[in-house]
Amino acid sequence: GENVEQHPSTLSVQEGDSAVIKCTYSDSASNYFPWYKQELGKGPQLIIDIRSNVGEKKDQRIAVTLNKTAKHFSLHITETQPEDSAVYFCAAFTSGTYKYIFGTGTRLKVLA
Amino acid sequence: NAGVTQTPKFQVLKTGQSMTLQCAQDMNHEYMSWYRQDPGMGLRLIHYSVGAGITDQGEVPNGYNVSRSTTEDFPLRLLSAAPSQTSVYFCASSYPGGGGETQYFGPGTRLLVL
Question: How many angstroms separate the CA atoms of B17 and A50, rounded?
């Protein structure tokens, strides 16, 4: 079946450094790629998304890039802060099937 | 708007018991789905619905039933609970459009099956 691979599973960075999380999807028909942040005991919340007709999107300290040819997309967080510590999930959505496939998550720790 | 609400927040069941996890949304979203979250496995789709009266299976549907009689509600039923169903369950909703739409998640239901 279709899947999304996410790396790394854990990531520790010093406060102020950048963090990069990468995902690879298998379904070439996927056309929407959201990123979610999940804090302890809460449901995932969307932080940024990108559609298949765009290569890059930025929102303040967060950016997402998409390489459709390689079926890769990445989350970039700059100037990390302790409150960025959480689990981050990528997902791929295919509008024809109405299915979201999630990556296995990355636990980000920002060390003060 | 309350967004997506789930009840209960926490439940303990014995093997073989049945229960219904409730999910409701007040955003008039057509698309609703149920996921389970297990350590190291991310979010796996159980069942989803693209509108009232329409449901379909996701990646891990066995042992779960759903129905969608209204746009607002999408309950998940466990007919005979098993320890393998111990997990955190999330309901989500979105308004499908061209190219995909944001999913809004509920706060989750933590289920322990003994």
Answer: 42
